[in-house]
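ingest -> validate -> predict -> emit
validate: passed (alphabet ok, no gaps, 320 aa)
predict: started
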Amino acid sequence: MTRSFRRALGAAALTVALAACATPPAPAPSAASVTSCGRAQAFPTPPQRIVSLNQHATEILVALGLTDRIVGTAYPDTPDVPASIAADYKKIKLIAEKYPSLEQVLAAEPDVVVGGYASAFAEKDGRGREALERKGIRTILLAESCSTGPIGIGTYTEDLALFGKAFGVAGRAKELAEETTRRIDAVSAKLKGVEPVPVFFYDSGEKAAFTVGGHGLGDDIAKKAGGRNIFADLPKVFGDASWEQVAERAPKAVVLVDYLGAGGVDGKRAFLQGHPLVGKTAGVAQGKYVTLTLPDLIEGIRLADAVEKLARGLHPGVAW
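emit:
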């Protein structure tokens, strides 16, 4: 996922009122209604043909046991997939390396399209949520992409509950949420009383630093791992900061964000080490780096892994 798409994370909220009948028939046991980023979606029966745009969204669906219902995915961020779902993930048809055209989406004959980023539903490309819904295709967008303020791990667990309700897998969704919460709480317990480490997330950029802001899960991952995102005051999920700001905020650790098309972490590390300002900060000068993939830092099944890995990197002296 290129940073240009992540700059535009967000979605317009639309409230849809549903009229109630005076004497409605009893709904089928599988009937469900959910609201996803401000848009109400009705599911008389669990969807059987899912197109999932963005890797982290697809990983959630696979972890929920929905592999056989996914008729296409698109826009992978990394070739690495968590071992727990790798075999099933390989079974899914990749319909586009980037975002598919509207024609490619329609050819898969989905009854629902799930997007990880707001850009998955770009109106200019004909994939807007309203446009798809007019064709009878329901849409779900992960809540991080429509956040308007700081969010936390609870955003992910709430979306798991939404997925469980919409797709008829509430039990499995609850298990995933509880396991994620348990593992992260265990890290927090080990770090009780530990001084937070100032962390700079380096996604990309040379003229300016493209970094994690305070409105995404990356910021909460830092907190849960015993860190302090030095750009928590940036009111975005991802955004630009000047190199002067990076140096002034004196990070003691650096997270290198790895994903397809980003040039590789070795090049990022070399750039930071050679930078006249940032190269002198403690995190860079002392080589205190942690590498996380882009899907590690956004809403998805990797959150607990990310918190554990970052916590170990920031606090190697803790008895893990």
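Residues 9-29 have pLDDT under 50 and may be disordered.
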